[in-house]
Amino acid sequence: MNNPIPYGRQNITEEDLNDVIETLKSDYLTQGPKIAEFEDAFANYINSKYAVAVANGTAALHLCALALNVKEGDKVITTPITFAASANCVRYCGGEVVFADIDPDTYLLDINKVKALLEAAPKGTYKGIIPVDFAGRAVNMEDFHALAEQYDLWIIEDACHAPGGYFRDANGKKQLCGNGNFANLAIFSFHPVKHIASGEGGMITTNDKDLYERLLELRTHGIVKDDSKYQNSASFAIGLNEEASDSASLNYPNWYMEMQELGFNYRITDFQAALGSSQLKRAEEGLARRREIANTYFQAFKNSEFVTGQSGIIEGHAYHLYILEVENRLGLYNYLRENKILAQIHYIPCHLMPYYQSFGWKVGDLPAAEEYYKACISLPMFPTLTPEEQDFVINKIKDFYNA
What whole-number percentage of the chain has pLDDT above 90? Predict the structure, then answer.
């Protein structure tokens, strides 16, 4: 292979380019109509009532924590096998992150470990849970919802890896990741290696109108532009002396707005939203191709002695990543890079990052996550991966171990 094969890659088509160029030529580069169009299309795709587009997935997580009033000392449970932002959003608000171990068969947050934490502490100790649809495999949110209700907890579902992914509920019905039926809020990312790429960008979905409206305000500096919500009088807004005016008969001027709490500028641009909307049209096509690639990998390695852990093809898995657990992971990683195959490792356990170790987390605290990290490697996985490229990857892996 002449060109390197990355673990993930965006696919930008002529239609994508045309939609972005059209937006760049329009009256709005930001705060325009393309954002609402993208939000409506994405909510429809996920089957949620509301969607709020934001600057990136990390911004989405932060806004969710703010909207749920996470504050100093609040304890929130999440998984160690995730990108650090899933935990960091709690710290941004002064909360305390409590990691629970993963299920070694699914790589997802182990609900039994979460139950054990909750049962071991007085009710009210914990405020929320952030499960992650890691690699694209859907968390059974129905089970987590039941547990959260029992302990009066909120849930943020980190579905960055899983747009279009799903699990089946107790009645056998498909439940799409992030649809809002079981989590208070869910978040997605549109980083270039994700299913839908907009350069940077993120989305929050929910079925809760109050949370939706609060997110809209927090996204834009905490500013409110709604006559019914203003705290200052119309007389003040116009600039009149209240004593010399009949405030009841006055209307707020069009220019008026109020910053009622500390928010952020976490807006997405219109041209990013235009790219996201265009990409969304091909979402199911890309998802089908990812599942096809995953099946090819599975068939190639299912009887391999050097693979120490591997699930079969999972219904509803969105396959953002295809992960093998292997012997001599470092040797394979280096060999693949020598052959221009840029495999990646997802993830270094969050609790062993120096920042979180400063709170007392240490090696041995979460053994399943730590064992997984020693052997995991993510293979190239993106819809435009050609059969020839995938065969090359498979053959090089087999060559390494046969040697």
Answer: 96
Give the H or E element holding residue 326. Answer: strand 322-326
pLDDT at residue 310 greater than cutoff 90: no
Same domain, 116 and 178: yes
Whether residues 89 and 122 fall in one domain: yes
Residue 199 DSSP class: S
Among 286, 265, 219, 278, CA closest to 38: 278
Give the CATH number of the domain where residue 71 resides: 3.40.640.10
pLDDT range class, residue 281, cuts 50, 70, 90: very high
Are 117 and 384 spatial neighbours (Cβ–Cβ below 8 Å)?
A: no
Provide the domain limits for residue 251. Answer: 223-259
Tell me the average pLDDT across 146-160.
Answer: 98
- Determine if the peptide bond prior to 373 is cis (ω within 30°): no
Torsion angle of the four alpha carbons 166, 168, 174, 177, in this order, in degrees rounded to the nearest 10: -30
- What is the value of pTM for the model shown? 0.97
Q: What phi and psi, each to the nearest 5 degrees, are found at residue 220?
A: -125, 70
**Maximal CA-CA distance, the chain:** 91
CA dihedral 15, 16, 22, 23 (to 10 degrees): 150
**Structure tokens, 399:** 């060559």
Q: Kindly report, residue by residue over 242-266, the tens digit of the pLDDT.
A: 776 776 789 999 999 999 999 999 9
DSSP string, 342-399: E-B-----GGGSHHHHTTT--TTSSHHHHHHHHHEEEEP--TT--HHHHHHHHHHHHH
